[in-house]
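Letters spell out the chain; backbone shape is given numerically. Both lines appear below:
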Amino acid sequence: QVRLVESGGGLVQAGGSLRLSCVASGSFFSILDMSWYRQAPGNQRELVASIYANGRTRYGDSVKDRFRISRVNINHTMYLQMNDLRPEDTAVYYCKMNVDFEVGYHNHWGQGTLVTVSS
């Protein structure tokens, strides 16, 4: 069983910052790619950022130069530093990790953490 737990969401004013965390626990070999997604009411879930096992990163166009994704492999933890937040960043943020069980790999999702940006 693998469990992902997000934290760090909350209410912030426009222009402010938040840092989200996602920690994986359970029995597995390693974690391959890690990603943050978000879903605003009435919208589809969209990719915010990804970080791969080799450290390469990828960002959605709307968050480039404002958000930064990072990971600490030994702690099975991923972070999302969000700066210069805007009201349109308001959404539930989900972490996703591609977990390697040696005999195969499988995506796992967290339960989501709400980020609300007031204008």
